[in-house]
Every structure is written in structure tokens, then in C-alpha cells.
């Protein structure tokens, strides 16, 4: 057989090899594109879910978010406001109106457990007064933070997760607490908080109750999910992305 007779076969084999090679490269290229599209799809899905989660968090937080600088300016302005008798008269009238409107249960406040000590995460000052933690257990029937001439409510500085702790002195059954926030301070500032009970140490706590959202009124009766045997009670504002100030006018651990 001559060399010319084998030429068509060689050409056919060469053409087949080229076509196979081209098909393999095309297949590899298509597989690479598919993998790239899958990776891009996964990335876009992850980014989308993350953005959705952030959006939901922002919407939830915005419902009880506060204008921190505005509140601070208000406090500073009130701190510089001189006292006078007409202001006292209007404040007293306002306090009586609040008592009728919110139906303060003074019997619950009287029928409360003895408190040995209280402490808060920090202390804010109003004029020359320190808004110390003890003001939340002084038993006064004054529940205004900004318009009272003398301090009647405790208040922390603006910070993350401000808290208030009650030491009962010994362990007892804790099932309910009565909590009164300031009447003249935006309730949105006290949204999203939790109440915990410490057994023997503050570091070892059990959740009594979480309150999510803005309180519908300043005086709240909070029932624990179940009675807890403990010594300490901790009230803490949850983190919503901004610094806040915790203010309590009166708090009582109710006897069972």
C-alpha cells in the first residue's frame, strides 16, 4: 500500500482528534461557567439573606430607637432650669393626674420584700443631685424624672446594656416584681429589657422574664415565667445598637 493510500485515514483520525479535543475543551469551559454561576448564585443568596436579616433588625430596633443627642440636650436644658413655686404646683398636679390615669397600686409597693442593697451600672447627675440607685426604693409617690424639683428616680448614664441590681440579703421565692418607670420620660427609652434572678452569685442568673417592645404604660407588673428561689434581681436594658439610660422611679419584689 502506498503512502497516499494512508493519507485519508490519517486526515480522518487527525480531524476526529481535533474535534474530540475541541469538544473536551468546550465541555470543560461549560462546566467552568456552570461552577462560576453556581458560586455567584450562592454568594448573591448569602448577601441577600444577610441584607434581609439586617433590614429586619433595623426595622425592629427602629421601633424603640431613641434620639440620643436630643434626649441628652433635653436633660441638660432641664438641669439648667431654675425651680419656682409655680413649677412645683404644676408638677404636683401632674403627678396626681398620673396616679389616676395609671392606677398606681401602692398596696403592692407596701407589700414588698425588704431590700438590703441596690446598685446600678452607673449614675447620672441632675443639677447638683446624683440619681442614685436608692431612689428607686425610697417609697416616695413621685414618679417624674425631669420635672421633679428633687430627685425621685434612679438613672444611669447613657451606655450599652445599663442595669439595676437588687440584693434581698437572703434567698427567697421571687415570682413577681412591680416596676415603675418615669411618667415624664419617653417610654421608648426603656424598651426591650430583661429581668433575671441570681441564686447565690450575680454571675449565676436565671431568666425571670423578657419584655420586648415599648411598655404600654410606665407601671408594670412583671410575672416570672415560674417562681425562682434566689437572692438577687437584675433589670437590664437589651442592646438595640445605641447607648441608652435606664431610669427607675420605684421597684418592688412582691411577697408571695
TrEMBL record:
Name recorded for this polypeptide: DgyrCDS1036
Pfam family name, one: F5_F8_type_C_2
UniProt-listed InterPro entries: BG_Antigen-Binding_Lectin, Galactose-bd-like_sf
Taxonomic lineage: Eukaryota, Metazoa, Spiralia, Lophotrochozoa, Annelida
Gene3D superfamilies reported for this sequence: Galactose-binding domain-like (2.60.120.260)
SUPFAM superfamilies (UniProt xref): Galactose-binding domain-like (SSF49785)
Keywords: Membrane, Transmembrane, Transmembrane helix
Segments traversing the membrane: 36-59
Keyword hit for Disulfide bond: no
PANTHER family membership: F5_8 TYPE C DOMAIN-CONTAINING PROTEIN (PTHR45713:SF15), FTP DOMAIN-CONTAINING PROTEIN (PTHR45713)
Amino acid at each position: 500500500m502506498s503512502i497516499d493510500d494512508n493519507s485519508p485515514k490519517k486526515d480522518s483520525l487527525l480531524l476526529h482528534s481535533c474535534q474530540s479535543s475541541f469538544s473536551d475543551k468546550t465541555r470543560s469551559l461549560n462546566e467552568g461557567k456552570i461552577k462560576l454561576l453556581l458560586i455567584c448564585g450562592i454568594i448573591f443568596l448569602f448577601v441577600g439573606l444577610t441584607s434581609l436579616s439586617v433590614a429586619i433588625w433595623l426595622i425592629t430596633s427602629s421601633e424603640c430607637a431613641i434620639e440620643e443627642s436630643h434626649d441628652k440636650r433635653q436633660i441638660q436644658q432641664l438641669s439648667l432650669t431654675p425651680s419656682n413655686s409655680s413649677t412645683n404646683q404644676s408638677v404636683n398636679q401632674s403627678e396626681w393626674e398620673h396616679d389616676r390615669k395609671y392606677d398606681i397600686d401602692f398596696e403592692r409597693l407596701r407589700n414588698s420584700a425588704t431590700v438590703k442593697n441596690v446598685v446600678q451600672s452607673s449614675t447620672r447627675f441632675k443639677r447638683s443631685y446624683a440619681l442614685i440607685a436608692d431612689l428607686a426604693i425610697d417609697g416616695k409617690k413621685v414618679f417624674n424624672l425631669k420635672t421633679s424639683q428633687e430627685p425621685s428616680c434612679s438613672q444611669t448614664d447613657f451606655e450599652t446594656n445599663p442595669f439595676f441590681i437588687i440584693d434581698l440579703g437572703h434567698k427567697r421565692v421571687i415570682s413577681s416584681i412591680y416596676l415603675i418607670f418615669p411618667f415624664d420620660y419617653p417610654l421608648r427609652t426603656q424598651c426591650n429589657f430583661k429581668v433575671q434572678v441570681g441564686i447565690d452569685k450575680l454571675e449565676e442568673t436565671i431568666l425571670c422574664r423578657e419584655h420586648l417592645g415599648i411598655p404600654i404604660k410606665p407601671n408594670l407588673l412583671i410575672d416570672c415565667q415560674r417562681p425562682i428561689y434566689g437572692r438577687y434581681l437584675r433589670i437590664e436594658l437589651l442592646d438595640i445598637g445605641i447607648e441608652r439610660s435606664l431610669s427607675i422611679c420605684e421597684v418592688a419584689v412582691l411577697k408571695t
